[in-house]
Amino acid sequence: MTYHSHLDPGMAARFGDALLASLAPDGGLWMPDVIPHIPASRMATLGAMSFADCAAELAAHFTDSLFDPDALRALCRDAYSYDMPMVTSAGERLDPAMPPQSDHFFLELFHGPTLAFKDFAARFMGRAASRLMQASGERRTILVATSGDTGGAIGDAFLGQDGVDVFILFPEGGVSTVQEQQLCTIGGANSNVHTLSVTGTFDDCQALVKGAFADPALSARFDLMSANSINVGRVIPQSFYYVWASLHAKAAYPERDLVISIPSGNLGNLTGGLIAQQMGAPIDRFIVAHNVNDPFVDYLVVGEYRPRPSVPTLSNAMDIGRPNNFPRILSLFDQNLEVLRRVCWGVSFDDDTTAAHLRRHYRETGYLMCPHTTVGHMGTLAFRHLHPDDATFLTVATAHPAKFADSLEKIIDETLSMPERLARAYQTEKRVTPIEPTLDALVGHLASVLE
Ligand SMILES: N[C@@H](CCOP(=O)(O)O)C(=O)O
After folding, report:
1. Which of 228, 288, 396 to mutate to test the pocket of ligand 1 (most atoms within 8 A of CB)?
2. pLDDT tens, position by position, 257-273
3. Does residue 148 have its Cβ closer than 6 Å to ligand 1?
4. What region holds the Threonine synthase N-terminal domain (predicted)?
5. Which ligand 1 atom is nearest residue 202's CA?
6. Same fold, 84-111+236-412 and 119-229+417-451
7. Whose CA is nearest to atom 12 of ligand 1?
8. What is the structure's pLDDT at 436?
9. How far is the CA of 155 from the centre of ligand 1 (A)?
10. How far is the CA of 319 from the centre of ligand 1 (A)?
11. How many CB atoms are located within 10 Å of the residue 338 CB?
């Protein structure tokens, strides 16, 4: 398996180089040359494995012979030591042997250490990058722009790792209070994780990171690596849970189509789902559910892509006006909008609708969703209304609701209890450096910490 730049198919790299370099030398996004197709018979055996072992088998297709099978299995078992349930609003768990009578499940991806789906990719990436760096003796400065969840997951995954410093850039006032507390308390005073609050939006943070990578001298000076989903090493592991979850859902309801609703922002999670589908995972359609920051929905509906400045919403992790993975999605579909439309259905919702649905669903069922999951769930309902055929729906539940306690408590008029992992963040003093959204400010800060 080799990778090429989405801007130049002739520019090639192996997985290890693509992961550690993050972007191609021409600034393009690394893409796998082919998406490996896994025959249905092999898929069936993957579905019978634990998620960790299934992930290791899938990872082998993308990582060439960099890791031997035992090493990959050990890596994935270590990374994925937590649960990934599919549950109904009543809390019944999908078990292919005894499926509950339901057509809708939440695919809860938030049971990892930082309580968001980003842990899945961050933990694979962290372990894979660490082995590669140990082998080559290289070091890296990781830059990660976050609108709430990625930064915490990456900080946690690389915490204490030799030869690595992580710089998390978040938009000041653009993440929830709990997320901010989490982002600013990773590790103790001498930790290798450094947090910067940027006076700007997430798009400004993302532009800063990309600006740093666009300067080869800067990249070389600090050995920069990106841990955002511009890095193919972040996107590939985001396909693993779609393969495993779809095999389980299909085993429970073999006669029904499978439709997955993904709350979306930077489109990395959708890209992971599309890769899974192209590998042969039994997924019929994706609902791509956005808040009002929805240039991808415009593209699906009108055929024109117009990135624009993001606006703040309740579902802050999706406040992205220029999604990073848009070119990857076009590339996966050979720029063919009609084919893309057959697979992806886009829809967006404003905050009032989101808050009202979150409250109503909680009162009626007792199941509390985070605002992002709520957007995904409304997407499921809207799609099902238009396509009342027999299907199983999975709504991706991206983050634990307690990460958004500040807004949720107002919406449901109740106090939420904090899971232990979040409560711990409140026992640690915040460490954060404010910076202006300029490359000079970022470079100045990197130099003051690293040189
Ligand atoms: N929604 C993300 C933004 C970063 O996007 P990614 O696709 O690079 O992970 C977040 O929560 O930080």
Report:
1. 228
2. 999 999 999 999 999 99
3. yes
4. 10-80
5. 3
6. yes
7. 146
8. 98
9. 13
10. 10
11. 8
Q: What is the mean pLDDT of residues 42-49?
A: 96
pLDDT in tens, 51-95: 999 999 999 999 988 999 999 999 999 999 999 999 999 999 999
Q: Is the pLDDT of residue 113 over 90?
A: yes
* Ligand 1: centre distance to CA 285 (Å): 23
Q: Is 146 in the pocket of ligand 1 (CB under 6 A)?
A: yes
Share of the chain above pLDDT 70, in %: 100
What pLDDT does 48 receive? 95
Give the mean pLDDT of the chain. 97
pTM > 0.90: yes
Q: What is the 3-state secondary structure (H, E, C) of 3-39?
A: EEECCEEEEEECHHHHHHHCECCCCCEEEECCCCCCC
> Topology of 119-229+417-451 in CATH?
Rossmann fold (3.40.50)
Among the four given CATH numbers 3.40.50.1100, 3.40.50.300, 3.30.70.2470, 2.40.128.20, the one describing domain 84-111+236-412: 3.40.50.1100
| Ligand 1 neighbourhood includes 149 CB (under 6 angstroms) | yes
Q: For tokens 């649960």, what's the residue?
A: 83
Ligand 1 pocket, residue 268 CB under 6 Å? yes
Does ligand 1 come within 6 angstroms of the Cβ of 89?
no
Probe residue for ligand 1, chosen from 23, 147, 232 as the CB with the greatest number of ligand atoms within 8 Å: 147
What is the 303 CA–ligand 1 centroid distance (Å)? 25
Q: What residue segments make up the domains of the chain, in order of their start?
A: 84-111+236-412, 119-229+417-451
- pLDDT confidence of residue 188: 80
Q: Whose CA is nearest to atom 8 of ligand 1?
A: 228
Ligand 1 atom closest to residue 148's alpha carbon, by position in its atom list: 11
